[in-house]
């Protein structure tokens, strides 16, 4: 999609230097200012890509303890890492406090079997600032001065079944005995990056700190027989001939600085049509320090056993062994991995300051203007975000919005994965076990990614997930429309979307099913650009629609096995939402007919219809597609209430709620009377069409009116006409006004779904009234999950989640428009809540979700929970984590701690409700 960038830009977009960078033309597949970015994972060990085990147990095969010793095949990781577009060369930070048993080269956390609630990062780092072209980036890592408690974190979490035992609970931050390590990157040019590392001693005593900037090449050469050509990193004075005529002249270099030359001209990435991608030479300029070299090669005896022999005598973990164990295991004349070792004695309240420069240009005085470049880019970032923040946002809301968007921009990652090669192996002499060809992702041999993707986060979930990515793109559109469009398109690109039409779900199992939200996201991004510039990107919309049609056909053929427009979509991203694992087959041929799956499909239909109508403005043939999806929506709405003519419904008139139904082969059925998001999702499927907008499409308009007049048995009250101000509108909704009233009453009830911080994913009613099915049960769990369904990694049994709540807010606004200002929602139960309009409900939910992060009158942020240090300490209280989900009663952050992905939707809420 790089060649289909939209032409129209808003006046506002032309205001800042960063906007002008965004619109610079591409050179081949790369826009120059985006060639370098934070595309390095925070964790690559224990991922599916690096799992070459016979049983698919990724966590056990490649644990954290081996990460320093085993060369990665599919992508590097590091602290505050940056790399080029195809990750040939990587720069990242390493640290040592003089006490740790491990050189701190990467973030630590628990594996899924180790954690009491699934995998869990056990570090504190914060993404504080970033621009779309990564012209300026800033992050903070909090590094304890005491020995890092690796063993205790594992042991304590193995023992407890309650809340996760976190790093702050160990006491290592007591008396402020830690370093605040700030890392800033500022580009003087597309491939000229100024780097500043400043480590503040927050403790009461002078403390030792080792800072080791690392520069290395990703291992692209060791996987074939014979191996491919190797790049090199050498000190510039070691062999000037090796770096060519453009090497730095010795006479022009200050005596108090050094230069490393990384020559990547021998290695290439094959881009097929575009030809090979090579990096050429890059220079790392730095103050004088101890320069160490090794090779980015696996330490085979440590990883595989004493019988194994390493390819090279110098291996990946050499710096760790040299610094920690004082082993003579490093080189000084060059290699494929390098670092510069600095040792500081930092006094209390003071800092160690280090400035470097990574550039494709030889420079005589490279460090002289680093500070000035950083200052200038920081100012430009401020000006850029002034155009992003809405005018009514408070200063604290602006802080929240900026950090949310910064986190999303930091969570861009080069996602390298060739499934065919992963299944078959690179070298026939070292083929993977045969069991691999019967295991995970065997039906996705076509998937081959070399894309920079937005991932949920780069530690817990350093891989794309299809519905996460859709929400992430909607947020990224606030700052970078082109990247948002490109990433959403990737899901439908031939190298991702399955030939049968399925969109890959997520790395652990691409064949799993996430909700079909891509059509909605396409429309949101299209509307954002149209609103901002006055013209939408029709080419983008058309391309997406063609692929979404194939995906829709897959859904209909795959998850509507009875052909009755009622869908069985599996777990649909809601992990443990119900009493059974919905992703598994049921014994005896039973089928779970799902309210949420059917609601999602109605939602899918309406956005396909809306997109087709928009395209029909230029091509009348698309109106026929719009008619098709209108009719399909009508059939889905009817099926939810009539179930293909059978004597039960997904709607329950007694309870006033939508439920899943477990249907048995003999015709018996059992309603799962569990009030959860499953029964709220049907509300997402609502659309309002004006007759004036439809008059240019008479065939579509006639079809709508014919159905309303002639097929009331299908349409019911879920497709009807309303007249106001001499204008007619058509309302399409799975839930009619009475059903909406009853579901919304439970939403507004504080004893059911409405918490002080948004909509709970499961009704609080079930705290006192657990739902039972045989010997299984579900109760209201507002925090971490007590059940281990789907590994217990996420909890949909009570916490507040941003993606579904965001969709609900927009649905409430549409219901308000459809039902009029006089329509009020009456709360269920005996609570003190007053009747409100759907619009007021939407506003209240949005404000409560924003208030998860914003300080209240007492100065507290709900997301920090009961941690007084996070709430009150000036060195903690304004640094935010955008958790995966939030406590259903207190708003405290839970789950993946750095999942700025869809929780970044708080930036959209601030944008929409503070204009």
Sequence-ordered SSE layout with sheet pairings:
Blueprint: H1 17-22, E1 36-37, H2 58-61, H3 64-67, E2 79-84, E3 89-96, E4 109-110, E5 120-121, E6 124-130, E7 136-144, H4 150-159, E8 178-189, E9 192-201, E10 207-217, E11 232-235, E12 257-263, E13 269-270, E14 276-277, E15 281-287, E16 290-294, H5 300-304, H6 318-324, E17 337-346, E18 351-359, H7 370-386, H8 395-410, E19 412-418, H9 419-424, E20 448-454, H10 466-476, H11 481-490, H12 518-533, H13 538-559, E21 591-593, H14 595-616, H15 621-642, E22 651-652, E23 657-658, E24 660-663, E25 669-672, E26 686-690, H16 691-694, H17 698-710, H18 712-715, E27 719-724, E28 727-733, H19 737-747, E29 754-755, E30 758-759, H20 765-768, E31 771-773, E32 776-778, H21 802-819, H22 838-850, H23 868-872, E33 885-886, E34 893-894, H24 900-903, H25 905-913
Helix pairs in contact: 8-25, 10-11, 10-12, 11-12, 12-13, 12-14, 13-14, 14-15, 15-17, 21-22, 22-25
What this model shows, in words?
The chain is α+β, with helices and mostly antiparallel strands. An 8-stranded antiparallel β-sheet has the order 6-7-8-9-18-15-12-11. Strands 1-2-3-10-17-16 form a 6-stranded antiparallel β-sheet, with no helix packed on it. Strands 21-24-25 form a 3-stranded antiparallel β-sheet. α13 runs antiparallel to α14. The N terminus is likely disordered.
